């Protein structure tokens, strides 16, 4: 028994020696801790909008160098953030171009990680343009809508509308509406506050108009709303009243459209001053006159309505209505009003036997707010 104890004790000691002499487990090398994401490049992304945000980011590290090179041989201008963790393109890309990422990031462990990947931008079937008004630096009246007119009909109105924005110096509620397939307007719910500064951005480059058609370039305009001038045109009063900044500044004897002939009514509705010309040739074959010259003409509708001088109709001014739809004033009063008018001033006609039908140019204020917002594409 005593000998057995010695045997098992020796065996245990031998096993301990064997265990103690075993080789240590090999240490597996760790990879770099930094992770770089450069997009869009997953799987060689294609059909990317050239106006899409183009960025690269690194986690647990910082960029040492980032380059985005186009297949046309040009490098995209960009900027690494102060903390080194991101890079942002600072210029738009080009249509129908392949782009390749290169560069490197340094991880928090000091190891280098390459920047790589590639993508391509969309190849348009064709590109198209647009124009915007009011023009840059213009001063306009408080009813002036913003108009974006496209060179061809827009199929994807929602995509294009999302590319349009309006910024104002004071809060103004407003909305976009499509008045035609090739024309979108923005108007405030109520008249603009006097003195408002307005910026319009139409970021159309990269926007898909539908059917493979894309915007050829961005548009921008900045304009100012002038003083608050409103014309109150009550046809039954035979007067044209001008209010400026809440105060009446003039009341002119006037003659409106002949009440007994619906074709000659000055229809009810809120019109907008569209143009001013010192001499307008008036033509209406239905009523037998052609190239009739009238001075100090302020156009308020493409239906044919103007505020203008008609000294030959002096007997009717302030007494009865006999015009063909225009608002007649004396020469002196027409000149005074003409000089005070801004494009975009509202002219509110009331008391007529008919309403002006929406559909003629600048009919924005003939629609209720509910009717207006129903024309939005988003």
UniProtKB/TrEMBL annotation:
Q: Among its keywords, does the record have Signal?
A: yes
- Coiled-coil region(s) at which residues? none
Listed A to Z, the keywords are:
Acyltransferase, Cell shape, Cell wall biogenesis/degradation, Peptidoglycan synthesis, Signal, Transferase
InterPro entries from the UniProt entry? Big_10, LD-transpeptidase, LD_TPept_cat_dom, Transpep_catalytic_dom
The signal peptide stretch is 1-22
**Pathway(s) served:** Cell wall biogenesis; peptidoglycan biosynthesis
Q: Which Gene3D superfamilies match?
A: 2.60.40.3710, 2.60.40.3780, L,D-transpeptidase catalytic domain-like
Q: What protein is this chain from?
A: Ig-like domain-containing protein
């Amino acid at each position: 028994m005593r000998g057995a104890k010695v045997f098992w004790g020796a065996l245990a000691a031998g096993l301990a020696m064997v265990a103690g002499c075993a080789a240590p487990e090999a240490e597996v090398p760790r990879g770099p801790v930094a992770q770089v994401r450069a997009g869009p490049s997953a799987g060689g992304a294609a059909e990317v909008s050239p106006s899409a945000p183009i960025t690269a980011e690194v986690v647990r590290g910082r960029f040492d160098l980032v380059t985005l090179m186009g297949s046309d041989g040009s490098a995209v201008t960009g900027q690494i953030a102060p903390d080194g963790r991101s890079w942002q393109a600072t210029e738009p890309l080009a249509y129908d171009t392949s782009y390749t990422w290169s560069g490197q990031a340094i991880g928090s462990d000091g190891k280098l990680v390459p920047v790589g990947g590639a993508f391509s931008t969309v190849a348009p079937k064709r590109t198209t343009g647009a124009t915007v008004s009011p023009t840059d630096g213009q001063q306009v009246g408080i009813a002036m809508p913003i108009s974006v007119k496209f060179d061809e009909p827009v199929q994807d109105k929602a995509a294009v509308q999302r590319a349009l924005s309006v910024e104002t110096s004071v809060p103004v509620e407003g909305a976009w509406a499509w008045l035609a397939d090739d024309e979108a307007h923005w108007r405030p719910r109520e008249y603009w506050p006097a003195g408002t500064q307005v910026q319009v951005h139409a970021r159309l480059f990269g926007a898909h108009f539908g059917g493979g058609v894309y915007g050829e370039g961005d548009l921008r305009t900045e304009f100012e709303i002038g003083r608050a001038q409103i014309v109150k045109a009550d046809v039954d009063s035979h007067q044209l009243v001008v209010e400026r900044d809440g105060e009446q500044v003039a009341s002119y004897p006037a003659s409106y459209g002949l009440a007994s002939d619906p074709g000659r009514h000055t229809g009810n509705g809120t019109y907008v001053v569209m143009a001013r010309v010192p001499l307008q040739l008036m033509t209406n074959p239905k009523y037998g006159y052609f190239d009739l010259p009238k001075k100090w003409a302020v156009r308020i509708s493409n239906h044919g309505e103007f505020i203008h001088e008609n000294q030959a109709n002096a007997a009717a001014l302030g007494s009865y209505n006999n015009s063909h739809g225009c608002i007649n004033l004396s020469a002196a009063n027409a000149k005074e009003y003409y000089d005070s008018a801004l494009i975009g001033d509202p002219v509110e006609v009331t008391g007529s036997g008919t309403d002006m039908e929406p559909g003629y140019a600048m009919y924005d204020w003939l629609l209720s707010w509910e009717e207006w917002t129903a024309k939005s594409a988003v």
